[in-house]
Amino acid sequence: MIFPIIAYGHPVLREVAKDITPDYPGLDKLIEDMWETMYASNGVGLAAPQINKSIRLFVVDSAQIFANMDDDERKETDYPDAPGIKQVFINAHIVEEAGEDWPYNEGCLSIPKIREDIYRAEEVTLKYMDENFREHTKTFDGVTGRIILHEYDHIDGKLFIDHLSPLKRKLLGRKLNDISKGAIRVDYKMLFPKK
User: Fold this and answer.
1) Which domain holds residue 145?
2) Catalytic: 151?
3) Number of domains within the chain
4) Which DSSP string corresponds to 170-189?
């Protein structure tokens, strides 16, 4: 089932999500539906709050970024995380962020048609459960680490625009207002805040 993506302005996007247990109702189906929703929306990551579920769950597929790169793009930059991952993260908690902050042009399915350069740490070490509730502690870097940090923000009630300067956010005010009012067209299903 493809869920509508929750749009900027909806309160669920600002909640700190809760950990879940292995007996969370319909978890396998929910994860399957999140993958389907993410791909239908042309995303590379999707967090549960973006489908109106305030739980610490997100999915990441950075492998598709590398699969879709042309040879010139591959030669341009050294990608430490190639060929990427396809992974489910449950009850993720950051252990450590390390390295220099670096810029990358980010967008978000919940904030369509806005892209900005966001500075994030080079590496993130996470403690999390996989879809079988096996515990892992692992370090991620490159584009994969970036996507994980972006999705992690969602389960902590943050958005990528929170990393912008107050002036930059103010300049985006009208566009953000249009999104929260539903005055925007996208090629995937969205759920806008009630007026």
Assistant:
1) 5-191
2) yes
3) 1
4) HHTHHHHHHHHHT----SS-
